[in-house]
Every structure is written in structure tokens, then in C-alpha cells.
Design a protein that fits this description.
By secondary structure, the chain is of the alpha+beta class. Helix content is about 35%, strand content about 20%. The structure holds zinc ion (2 copies). One zinc ion binds next to loops.
Length: about 375
């Protein structure tokens, strides 16, 4: 398999400094752990980063003494990021020392609780700035190293589904529960190099397929059932996301066939609409208008898609009226669905990376319907 391009942490820190200037901040306290990882490479379950014009400091507790140093060094920014290890009070002191000269300090408003915000402001001795989405905005545009990892995650997921799909075909004549199939798919991803699943796998069969986020159950998958399979792999922190809907034992008929055809048409139009320079709202509209024109608007009740990266759901949001503009390097899903209680549901989802002149699907599994 091709080598993975490196992740450029130096560039991330440089871009963050520019973003602080653009947001008129002298410092930022990064408490969101995904953002901490994005900026420093540190993957522990507790840690805070303070960034100012002059300094970057990562604080965490003694459990991560060795790991923090190793990961920051592996990220190639050991010379730029100071690490302070200690209890909660020692960490706060270290962070506040770095922020002492910063007049305008941002707190990640979507991450800190009210109580934490009050406590930080008391210790700072001044108001903090409610900032939101600063690091998240940097994360929207992926570099080559990130795209390589997402491509690998998607190909692990593709290969795992190919491996276990015969189980679904065999369900026409044997016994298979939703949760058994989900477990087989998850373990196939792990065996193929996924460090974890990207999120809890959805396997929704028969009437359950009409529930967009069904939890895999002990329901037995029957001949003729539609089966929605929504899943992904995580590789070096980066996630993939794909949905395919199958029918066990033969092609869909009647109302179910109508739904399959409609969602397939909507999804492929949405995929074709993903281009640099367009708004995510326009991609949503392409998918939604096709479903609405078939009189099914109220059967498509979720957004068309979302960004993917270190988080399974992140900016940019591909939703009705969303104004985010797709830039080369953005990675988004296109996943329209139609759900009719008593008949069944169909969702088809791909993860795409926006390129200079279009988009490239990272998820490549066939859209053939018969399992
Ligand atoms: Zn999904
Ligand atoms: Zn998704």
C-alpha cells in the first residue's frame, strides 16, 4: 500500500496563529480534545492547550507524562510546544502563566461548560472572549496526509463490507441477526487495520430500515428485507463514513423499488454537485429537490451530509440553506435517505474529498442493491 504523506503540524500551528490575529485574539485556550489532537498530536483523554503569539503549551496529568512527549515529538513540533505535567491546579497555573500577557483570551464556547467558563474568567481576572469554531475552521480543509489517512479508512471499510456481504446474501436461507452482521463487519474492519469503528455501526433491516439511526438488534434478517448498513473505519484518528442499502435475495419491487430509484437518483446528483466554490446548501438542495419533486419531501427529514475528519460529524454541514463554501481539501458526505414506515427505508452515502476541479469519492463500494 502506498506510503502515507506526513501530517504537517507546523503548518497547523502557523495557520492557527493567523486565525487568532483574524479573530482579534491574543490567546486561545483549546479544551476540545479533538482540537488538542489536531494541534499537537496528543491523543490522551485529558489535556488543554494554550496558544499565544509567543507560546504553545500542552498540559496534561501524570498518566500521560511519557505519551505526551512522544506524541508531540512524533508530530515534529517538540521544539515549539512546551509540555507541563501535573495535577489540575498545576496545569491551570501553567496555562495562566502563558496567558498572563494576553489581553483577549478566547475560550472554546462550544466546548466549555458555563461553570468552567466562570472559573477560567475568575482565574484570568478578566472577561474571556466567547470564541467558536476557530480550530474547527482550520480542520475543514484537509492536507494530503489527512486525505491519505481518510482514503485508507474508507478502503478498509470497503474491503470489510466485501468480506462479510456474503453473510447477508445467505440470510435469505439461513439465520442472521442485525447485531451479528454488525459485529462481523466491525471485526472485519479491525482485522484489516482499523484502530476502531468510526461510529456505532447501523444495520437496519425490514421495518427497522425506516428508522434512520436504528441500533442493531436481535431482529432476524429475512428474505426480501431492505437492509441499511451505515458504518466506517478509523485509521490514525481519521474516519470514513459510508451507507449502502441492500435487498436480501432479489431486486426490490413496488413501493420499495420506487424509493430505491429515487434515493439513487438524488444521491448521484448530489455527488455530482460537490465542486469547489459551491455552497453546501446548494448540494443539499440538489438532493432534496429531487426527493421533493417525487412528493416525498417529508420522508427525507435529515441533512444531506456533513464534514468528516478526526470527528465523524464536523464542519462543514451539508444542510438546507447552509452557506459554507466548499474548498479543495474539504471532505463531506452526501447521504440522502427516504424512510416510509411500514415499507422501509433507503439511504446511500459516500464520503468525498473536494478537489481543484470536482470531487473524488473516498468510499468506492458498489451500489448494486442485491446482497
Ligand atoms: Zn453514515
Ligand atoms: Zn454520515
Amino acid at each position: 500500500m502506498a506510503d502515507l504523506r506526513p501530517l504537517d503540524f507546523d503548518r497547523r500551528l502557523d495557520r492557527l496563529r493567523l486565525a487568532l490575529v483574524a479573530n482579534e485574539l491574543d490567546g486561545l485556550l483549546v479544551t476540545n480534545l479533538t482540537n488538542v489532537r489536531y494541534l499537537t498530536g496528543f491523543t490522551g483523554s485529558a489535556g488543554i492547550v494554550a496558544v499565544t503569539e509567543a507560546d504553545v503549551v500542552l498540559t496534561t496529568d501524570g498518566r500521560y507524562r511519557t505519551q505526551a512527549g512522544e506524541q508531540v515529538d512524533a508530530a515534529g513540533i517538540g521544539g515549539r510546544v512546551a509540555i507541563e505535567i501535573g495535577g489540575a491546579e498545576e496545569q491551570r497555573t501553567a496555562l495562566l502563566e502563558r496567558l498572563a500577557g494576553a489581553a483577549r483570551v478566547g475560550l472554546e464556547a462550544e466546548d466549555v461548560t458555563w461553570a468552567q467558563a466562570v472559573a477560567w474568567q475568575e482565574r484570568l481576572g478578566r472577561d474571556a472572549v466567547r470564541s467558536a469554531g476557530i480550530v474547527e475552521a482550520l480542520r475543514e480543509v484537509k492536507d494530503g496526509g489527512e486525505i491519505d489517512r481518510m482514503r485508507r479508512a474508507a478502503s478498509i471499510a470497503d474491503d470489510a463490507l466485501a468480506e462479510v456481504l456474503p453473510m447477508l446474501a445467505a440470510a435469505a436461507t439461513s439465520t442472521l441477526e442485525e447485531q451479528e452482521f454488525a459485529l462481523a463487519l466491525d471485526s472485519a474492519m479491525r482485522r484489516r487495520g482499523a484502530e476502531s469503528v468510526a461510529f456505532e455501526t447501523i444495520v437496519a433491516s425490514g421495518e427497522n430500515s425506516a428508522k434512520p439511526h436504528h441500533h442493531p438488534s436481535a431482529r432476524r434478517i429475512e428474505n426480501g428485507d431492505p437492509v441499511v448498513v451505515d458504518f466506517g473505519a478509523t485509521f490514525e484518528g481519521y474516519r470514513s463514513d459510508m451507507t449502502r442499502t441492500f435487498v436480501v435475495g432479489g431486486l426490490p419491487t413496488g413501493k420499495l423499488k420506487e424509493i430505491f430509484d429515487l434515493v439513487a437518483t438524488s444521491q448521484s446528483a448530489g455527488v455530482a454537485a460537490v465542486q469547489p466554490g459551491v455552497t453546501t446548501g446548494s448540494v443539499d438542495a440538489v438532493c432534496r429537490d429531487i426527493i421533493a419533486a417525487a412528493g416525498m419531501a417529508e420522508r427525507f427529514e435529515h441533512s444531506t451530509g456533513h464534514g468528516v475528519g478526526l470527528d465523524i460529524h464536523e464542519a462543514p454541514w451539508v444542510a438546507a440553506k447552509a452557506t459554507a463554501i466548499l474548498e479543495p481539501g474539504a471532505v463531506v458526505t452526501v447521504e440522502p435517505g427516504v424512510y416510509v414506515a411500514g415499507v422501509g427505508g433507503v439511504r446511500i452515502e459516500d464520503t468525498l474529498v473536494v478537489t481543484d476541479d470536482g470531487a473524488e469519492p473516498l468510499t468506492r463500494f458498489t451500489k448494486e442493491v442485491v446482497a
